[in-house]
Design a protein that fits this description.
344 residues; alpha+beta; nine-stranded mixed beta sheet; globular; disordered N terminus
Length: 344
C-alpha cells in the first residue's frame, strides 16, 4: 500500500507539474511584446554631408530631419562623455535610417580588413525592383564592392532560392545590401508595380556567434517573432559574403512594424573576429538598431533582471523631445551589437 500510495503521489505531482508548465507556456505565448518593432537603424558616420549625399543621391533616401544635440542626457544615453552630435533622419519607402556624426569627441574608423563573418558585421538590406539595373547604377556611382557581383541563390534552397543580392559599402565602409525577391518570396509591398528602383528596407542583418543565445534575447526576452529560417551555403553564398566556404544559419525575426532583424551565424568558417570589447557609439564601426516600446521603464527593468549589458546609465528622459522620443536606453545583445529601446 505504501508503494502504491507513493506511486500515486508521484503521478499526481507529475500531473501538477505538467499543468503548471502548460500554464506558463500559455502565458508565454500570449504575453505582449516588449518591443513593437524596429524604428530605424542608426549608423555612426565620419562626415555627415558626404554620407547624406551618398544615401540621397545614390540610394534615393529622403532627408526627414537634421538636428544638432549636446548635453548630459546624450552623454548618459550613448555612454560617451562630452558628446555633440549631428543627427540626420532619412527615409526610403516606409523605413528609416539615422545617420549620426560625432562632432565631439571623434571616434575611430572601421578597422582595416573587416570581413562579413566578423561579429561586428551589420548591414542594411535595401529592396530593389530590378537587380541588374540597380547594380549598373551602383557601378556607375563607383561604390566599393563587398561581393564579387550580384548572386542569385540556388533553387535547391527552398527558403532562399531565387533571391538575388549584392553587398557593397557606403563611404565610411559600412556594409549595405541590395536585395531582390522572386514572386513567391518577400512582403507583398516589394512586388507592387511602380517606377522606383530602390523601394525600402527589408531588414538589418547581424552576425552572431550562437543563434540560440540571440533568439533568447530577441525572441524570448524582447518577444519579437521568428519569421523565417534557412541554411545557406555553396558558391553563390560564398561569393555574396566574400567569405570562402561560407555556410550560414540564418534566422529572421520581426516585430509588428518596421524592418526585421536577421541573425547570421557562420557555421563555417568560424574565424571571424569577435565584437570589439572597447567599441563606443562614436566609433564609425558603430551601429545601433532602434526598437520601440510602450514603456521604457518596464523594458529596462526586464533587461536589467535578465543581466543585459547596459550602455546607458539607465532610462534617459529626453526632456526637449528633439530626436522624437520621450525616453530611451541602450543595451548590448549577447554578441555586443547595440540596441536602443525608445518610448515615443
Amino acid at each position: 500500500m505504501a508503494v502504491l500510495f507513493q506511486s500515486r503521489r508521484y503521478h499526481l505531482l507529475v500531473a501538477a507539474i505538467l499543468v503548471f508548465t502548460s500554464a506558463v507556456v500559455a502565458m508565454q505565448l500570449g504575453k505582449p511584446p516588449l518591443v513593437s518593432g524596429v524604428d530605424a537603424i542608426d549608423v555612426t558616420v565620419s562626415d555627415m554631408d558626404h554620407a547624406v549625399a551618398f544615401y540621397s543621391d545614390v540610394l534615393d533616401f529622403t532627408e526627414v530631419s537634421d538636428i544638432e544635440v549636446a548635453g548630459s542626457n546624450y552623454e548618459q544615453l550613448e555612454g560617451v562623455f562630452g558628446v555633440r552630435m549631428r543627427v540626420v533622419r532619412m527615409r526610403l519607402g516606409d523605413e528609416f535610417i539615422v545617420l549620426t556624426e560625432y562632432l565631439a569627441p571623434k571616434g575611430r574608423s572601421i578597422p582595416a580588413g573587416a570581413r562579413s563573418n566578423d561579429q561586428s558585421f551589420q548591414h542594411i538590406a535595401i529592396i530593389v525592383s530590378d537587380m541588374d539595373t540597380a547594380y549598373r547604377w551602383l557601378r556607375q556611382n563607383k561604390v566599393e564592392h563587398a561581393s564579387s557581383g550580384p548572386q542569385t541563390l540556388p533553387a535547391w534552397n527552398k527558403n532562399a532560392g531565387g533571391i538575388s543580392a549584392f553587398y557593397f559599402k557606403d563611404p565610411d565602409g559600412h556594409p549595405l545590401e541590395i536585395l531582390h525577391f522572386p514572386p513567391d518570396k518577400g512582403a507583398t509591398k516589394w512586388h507592387r508595380s511602380g517606377n522606383q528602383l530602390f523601394l525600402g528596407i527589408d531588414h538589418t542583418a547581424i552576425v552572431v556567434s550562437d543563434t540560440d543565445a540571440s533568439v533568447r534575447f530577441y525572441h524570448d526576452l524582447l518577444v519579437m517573432q521568428i519569421s523565417g529560417e534557412s541554411e545557406n551555403y555553396g558558391t553563390e553564398q560564398a561569393h555574396l559574403n566574400n567569405v570562402f566556404g561560407a555556410h550560414l544559419r540564418i534566422t529572421a525575426l520581426r516585430g509588428t512594424s518596421g524592418p526585421g532583424i536577421e541573425l547570421l551565424e557562420y557555421l563555417a568558417p568560424r574565424d571571424g573576429r569577435p565584437f570589439p570589447s572597447d567599441e563606443h557609439a562614436n566609433d564609425v564601426v558603430h551601429r545601433q538598431t532602434v526598437l520601440v516600446t510602450a514603456s521604457a521603464d518596464k523594458a529596462a527593468q526586464k533587461l536589467f533582471f535578465s543581466k543585459a549589458n547596459f550602455v546607458s546609465s539607465g532610462v534617459i528622459a529626453n526632456q526637449t523631445g528633439e530626436l522624437g522620443y520621450r525616453s530611451a536606453f541602450i543595451v548590448r545583445d549577447p554578441d555586443g551589437h547595440a540596441v536602443e529601446i525608445e518610448q515615443k
